[in-house]
């Protein structure tokens, strides 16, 4: 499988380039190199603080004749400080300006968490707005307006649990077509996947390599023995095994890399197929472990807890 099909038959390449924690000075080369070797899907977000550099790289790739705009699938995300119907289009227009694009292929609500305008990362309770004051359904109306105005070809969400998805599905005129969440062999989210499939919603896995963000974690996905043994037997790298597993579950993956050899290695995971036995062994690795645990949304007397975000 090389692409996921949307309701109108638009196809999103199943493997894209993640740009979270790619420093502005590194991301330009990463995006340009990625496009040169065949990546056609770039995953961005206003919050990553590097959309201008991503935009410069996309513009350069188009200028060099490597690709046309239509060849690319570009996703971005609405930051938490722009929840609320009236704030969506201005935030999206800023992202489009930064990326030097006329439209996005996919625009997502980044988190079911609302912050006061101008807040990058919250430090105290007063930095937040509770969802009772700015309901997700209200922000969704802004997303629908973006779709109707042609600024985004598809709209969806990220980090949403089943209850939050249900809340939107009840009132949506245009239903969310994508939920982007953390997924890898240690966090397989079977129940969420079934719910999304039932509701004709696609999934994208972020941190598909078990993100190295949690440096204190003793759990290292790519050092897991089962993954390493399968990698050895199939002449793949551990990263390719992790990516192939999620891809074979019908889920898109957006591994981040700023290193040319690893960019290529990750793209080449598309050339490998795991056997049913491999898939069964990998299925057993599920531990429900989140590397991105959401605890950064918890402050004293704040309106959000990690549990309120993840537990449906
Ligand atoms: P680097 O950018 O130096 O390649 P995730 O996408 O799960 O968040 O993981 C990204 C992390 O994994 C980054 O630190 C990235 O580092 C590293 N990484 C990306 N591709 C590979 C690979 N094929 N093998 C090992 N580490 C990788």
TrEMBL record:
Stored InterPro entries: AKR, Aldo/ket_reductase_CS, NAD(P)_OxRdtase_dom_sf, NADP_OxRdtase_dom
Organism encoding this protein: Olleya sediminilitoris
TM stretches of this protein: none
Domain NADP-dependent oxidoreductase: 16-286
Stated name of the protein: Aldo/keto reductase
Coiled-coil stretches: none
Pfam families: Aldo_ket_red
Lineage: superkingdom: Bacteria
């Amino acid at each position: 499988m090389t692409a996921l099909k949307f309701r109108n038959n638009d196809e999103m390449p199943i493997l894209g380039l993640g740009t979270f924690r790619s420093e502005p000075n590194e991301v330009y080369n990463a995006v340009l190199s990625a496009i040169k070797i065949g990546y056609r899907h770039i995953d961005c977000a206003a919050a990553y603080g590097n959309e201008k550099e991503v935009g410069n790289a996309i513009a350069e790739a188009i200028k060099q004749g490597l690709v046309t705009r239509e060849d690319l699938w570009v996703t971005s995300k609405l930051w938490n400080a722009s929840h609320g119907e009236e704030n969506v289009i201005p935030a999206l227009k800023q992202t489009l300006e930064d990326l030097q694009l006329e439209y996005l292929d996919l625009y997502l609500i980044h988190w079911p968490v609302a912050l006061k305008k101008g807040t990058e990362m919250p430090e105290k309770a007063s930095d937040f707005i509770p969802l009772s004051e700015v309901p997700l359904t209200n922000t969704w109306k802004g997303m629908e307006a973006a779709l109707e105005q042609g600024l985004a070809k598809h709209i969806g969400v990220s980090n949403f649990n089943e209850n939050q998805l249900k809340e939107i599905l009840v009132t949506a005129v245009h239903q969310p077509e994508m939920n982007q969440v953390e997924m890898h062999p240690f966090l397989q989210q079977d129940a969420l996947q079934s719910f999304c499939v039932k509701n004709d919603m696609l999934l994208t896995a972020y941190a598909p390599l078990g993100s190295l963000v949690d440096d204190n974690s003793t759990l290292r996905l790519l050092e897991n023995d089962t993954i390493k043994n399968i990698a050895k037997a199939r002449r793949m790298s551990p990263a390719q095994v992790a990516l192939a597993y999620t891809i074979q579950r019908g889920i898109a993956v957006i591994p981040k890399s700023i290193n040319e050899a690893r960019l290529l290695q990750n793209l080449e995971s598309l050339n490998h197929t795991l056997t049913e036995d491999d898939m069964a062994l990998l299925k057993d690795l599920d531990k429900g472990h989140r590397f991105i645990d959401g605890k950064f949304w918890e402050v004293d007397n704040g309106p959000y807890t990690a549990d309120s975000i993840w537990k449906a």
